Amino acid sequence: MRRTIRPQGWIVGAALAAALLLPGARAEAGAASTASDGIALSNSYAGNGWRQQMLKMWNLAAQHGIAIGAIAKTKVVNSDNSAPQQATQISDLTLQGWKAIVIDAASPTALNGVIQQACSAHIVVVVFDSLATAPCAYKVAYDYVEMGEIEADYVAKHLGDKGTVLEVRGIAGTSVDNDIHQGIVQAFAKYPGIKLVGSVHGNWTQSIAQKEVAGILPTLPKVDAVVTQGGDGYGTFQAFKTADRPTPLIIMGNRQDELALWKQLAGGPGGYPTMSLSSAPGVSSIAFWVAQQVLAGVTVPKTVHVPLLIIRANDLDAWLKAVPPGGVSTPLYGQKWTEDLIAANLGHSALPQSPIPTGVP
Amino acid sequence: MATDNAPFVRLAGIRKSFGAVQALAGVDLSIPAGRMVSVVGHNGAGKSTLMQVLAGTLAADGGEIRIGGVERRAGYDVHAAQALGIRCVFQELSLCPNLSVVENTRVVHPGLGGFGWRRRCRALIVEALEAIFPGHGIDPDRTAGELAIGQRQMVETARAFTEAGTKVRLVILDEPTASLDADAASHLLRFTGAARAKGIALVFISHRLPEILGHADEVVVMRDGEVAGGGAARDFTEERLVELMGVVREAASEGGRAEASVGALRVEEAGTAGGRLPLRLHAGEIVGLGGLAGHGQRAVLQAVFAAAHGREGHWRVRGSVAYVSGDRQSEGIFPLWSVGLNTTVSRLRALAHAGIISLWSERTLAEEWRRRLEIRTPGIDRPISSLSGGNQQKVLLARALASAADTILFDDPLRGVDVGTKRELYRHVAEAARAGKAFLWHTTENIELENCDRIYVFHRGTITDEIPRAELSEERLIRASFATGMSGATGMSGAPGMSGAR
Amino acid sequence: MLAEIRLPPASPRVLLPAAALAAMLVLIFAMEPRAMSYFGLTLLLNFALPAVFAATAQMAVIAAGDIDLGLGPFISLVNCLAATWLTTRPAAGIVALALLVAAYAAIGALIHLRRLPSIVVTLGASFVWLGLALLVLPTPGGSAPAWLTTLLAVHPPGVPLPVLVSILVGLIGWLLLMRTSYGTVLRGIGGNPRAVARAGWSLLGGRVALYAAAGILGVLAGLALTGLNTAGDATVGTQYTLVSIAAVIVGGGEFVGGIVSPAGAVIGAWIMLLTGSLLSFLDISTDWQLSVQGGILILVLGLRALEQWRAA
């Protein structure tokens, strides 16, 4: 394998560039060493807690990868939620000769041109979280329809197939919101006794969820349960409390305030049965290892499904301990775990469950 | 041409009003081909309006326009005037500062497009510049904005004489020598002879009476929108021109005001340059800045204002200063604010307690001034843009009077305000002066100077006379405005003051 | 004949940004020698095409002494139309794009006739463009017409496509605006509208011509972006509003007075684009990109103010 050290002198550089960019130049290898390769992250937006945690997880995974000699270097570039800016950055990364580019995309479509260009230059492209639809890219994807189904099943079983449910949705028009909603509706269709009595858009933000839920509450009869999308459970609770209404069963996300609230409610009389499920910011570490596996020549399916982060009551304490106040809980996924995940995806077998943290990552 | 012996231009009974103000009250004017007619008059006599009518940029309300012996009826506009070969060099420079000299030439010749226009324009303007101002030293590829003001004036003048398609038949020169040095001015005056020899008619407007008498064929004197007299230039003297321009009118102000009680010195020039009369302003005084518009009055006001804010060392100013501009749209009002806020904005610091404005006292103040100046508005919360022009001007005046300023600078603040409103405002100014405020008042309407205790008359940036109100006469004012009867009368450089005046 | 095509007197307004661009390129080539190849330049300047068209569109509006705050959403709308109608119903797509150009001309007429501030009208229009874009394409998707993606992937011999088109845009813009006689009059409108009107030109016609040019260039920017992205997204163009304004100013233009230069706008667009790449190659965090772009703008305006202050 060629090394990606910075060449001295422009003649060497030009020759290298030509070789790099010419089709077929990269050797077809089996299980090859990736010790000298570099993997870059192009992130569309860094302005919220989830993304910050995601970047932190990336750096932890990449540092670990460098320490064990899996890769040589990494780099993170953020754009300001602007697709053309991110596209330019991906072009630059392509030019700089990174072996793999991992992307959290600003637009599902607007980056397809540059992604195709990178693929043509024999660069491994992995997209995760906010996906891009370019066919040549590997996709590390949550099944958000399944997330909706799991929530709805839990609620229906807990209520005994009888009750009223409020739905707090995410940002309108996003595929994530559409998928979760679809899953919820599909699952509730199996339970005729459950009635969806209202729906608001909480935008995955506690303050907005609180405002929106408070707005709709006066129009609603008794609410037995609330299905959420994560980042909105605490705000929903506050809205009920302020309106002096009994606290319903609220599905929680993975924000620290949501888990702490759950813990506090569970400590009260009668306990508080609920569950937390969400997409984990640590998915960036999965994407990192997927990229490394592809570089190493391992066969990887174009779409790698990732299990949702599901927290049950008996694991709550362990997860709470691992997340600082104001943070977002997430596991850090390792190389071995990712190899298992890829194998499970290839064999269509059950996906491995997220590891429970043993301390603050 | 229809009739060869008829003058190229014959205007008869031209009338034009702006609202209640009659700018032209039936003016007759004939301009024969190959002759230079000079139009003279003081501020507001109607010269500029008449020239705009002739150039087609302003439509007359009534009267007859015959050009080339043919009656031009409705639809006489810039295009028609240009097609007839009428050109105009306006007083305010009308070059595009971002275009080169060559490109500016192209702008005035709509028919000059097409391939190679640049070469043709260059040839035209270079030829005209050489003919009029030999040795001008102007690079035709420089942008107009880069040229000195005198050079711009040269380009503009030369441009009016360039021919592409239509022949030049009449050129209106509005103060063409105002920003030229003596050398260039004499070149231009010499060139007018050559132009006349080619049959071009010229209108020459100037404040330099010797230039007029020395070079024009005919003189027309305007006053109050009418022709006060005229004839062959050789039959006139400066004395006679001045007399015609300003026959003493009956005073329109209500008998002026009582003797001012002069207080402490408020504004003073720190060392005057070039022997010009020193300007002084005391508390309780109203001092007028007279003379022809654009001769340095505004510069003085702006310098005093800057000095009050510590940005100018040439003036010594004691106490605070407020400025009221006649150009209310660009300098005065906050167009989106209410009448009340526009009134009190100068007083906010005094209205504030610990940085917080007391809304109640603000309203009280605004209401008080609305009452005192009789600002016609349904309420002080209405947007100022809902007021008439005169009432907006009242608000500006109210703002200055309401402010704590010791000295108020007036930059022709009553331009375009009706007579009734003016009278009210004069009264308020006089009242404020009695209360100790000092006013420095630049006006282009001579009649307003009768409200002042003393008048400084400006000519080409210097003060040529200081007239106490008791001695104010139209004649003396015009004499000083045109700097006649003094040594170095054309005032090429700072003219010495009139030592004999007092 | 030689005098005919002689270049305008070298003004520091364009020389300064040109020198800055040259310095940036030298630095980029030193840091990343790969960028110096044909394909390297293609990659580096991929997104120069929409940026260059956007900057020249903005320049046309600024030439009239106005400013266009709706350009970014307008480019998004073109992107959405191109990724949907132009692919599935080409005739309807072409008509829609022609209507958009007409709408721009109409905005110019409206601003002139009603004496409205352009900043308000174009800001209002920006919401209309965004709304229409969402109507056409509610969620990102669609696909660019094949001819468009092929066109954008053309590799002309010798000179990479973005470089070639940038030079052509600068050259054609220079010819039309700086060399033709009507272009001169159009700039004159920005410099001294009264003088131009007095000389018998229609200010309405001039403004409509400039806005129509902006509309055409805006459509070209949207098409170029679609060809590069291969799909549509209703929010993809947002940043072009401010980037285009910055490009015009950095390239030697002024907000008022009709002082603009097509070559300068092209150079400005390159500078704004390459700032991010340069930071990336220098291994400076991209979080600084916006600050650096803003800093360049303030620096340019500051230097210019200093120059004027010295001249005064």
Order of strands, widest sheet of chain A = 2-1-3-4-5-11
Q: How does the helix and strand content of chain B classify structurally?
A: alpha/beta
Number of DSSP strand runs of chain A: 12
Number of domains as seen in the coordinates of chain A: 2
Query: CATH superfamily of the largest domain in chain B, called what?
Result: P-loop containing nucleotide triphosphate hydrolases
CATH class of the largest domain in chain B: Alpha Beta
Radius of gyration of chain B: 25 Å
State which percent range the strand residues of chain A make up.
15-25%
The total count of helices of chain A amounts to: 12
In CATH, what is the homologous superfamily of the largest domain in chain A? Response regulator
Distance between the termini of chain B: 57 Å
Tell the overall outline of chain A. Answer: elongated
Topology (elements, then pairings):
The complex is a heterotrimer of chains A (361), B (502) and C (312).
Chain A: H1 10-21, E1 38-43, H2 49-67, E2 73-78, H3 83-96, E3 100-104, H4 112-120, E4 124-128, E5 138-142, H5 144-159, E6 163-169, H6 175-188, E7 194-201, H7 206-216, E8 225-227, H8 233-242, E9 249-250, H9 256-266, E10 276-278, H10 283-295, E11 303-306, E12 309-311, H11 316-321, H12 335-347
Parallel strand pairs in A: 1-2, 1-3, 3-4, 4-5, 5-11, 6-7, 6-8, 8-9
Antiparallel strand pairs in A: 10-12
Helix pairs in contact in A: 2-10, 3-4, 5-6, 7-8, 10-12
Chain B: E1 9-18, E2 21-31, E3 36-40, H1 47-55, E4 62-67, E5 70-72, H2 78-83, E6 86-89, H3 101-107, H4 117-132, H5 149-160, E7 170-174, H6 182-197, E8 201-205, H7 209-215, E9 218-223, E10 226-232, H8 238-245, E11 265-269, E12 280-282, E13 286-291, H9 297-308, E14 315-317, E15 321-325, H10 328-332, H11 339-344, H12 348-351, E16 352-353, E17 356-357, H13 359-372, H14 389-402, E18 407-411, H15 419-434, E19 438-442, E20 454-459, E21 462-468, H16 474-481
Parallel strand pairs in B: 3-8, 3-9, 6-7, 7-8, 13-19, 13-20, 15-18, 18-19
Antiparallel strand pairs in B: 1-2, 1-4, 4-5, 9-10, 11-12, 11-14, 16-17, 20-21
Chain C: H1 12-31, H2 38-44, H3 48-63, H4 71-83, H5 85-88, H6 90-113, H7 118-136, H8 146-152, H9 161-179, H10 181-191, H11 193-198, H12 203-229, H13 240-250, H14 262-281, H15 289-311
Helix pairs in contact in C: 1-14, 3-9, 3-12, 3-13, 3-14, 4-7, 4-12, 4-13, 6-12, 8-12, 9-10, 9-14, 13-14
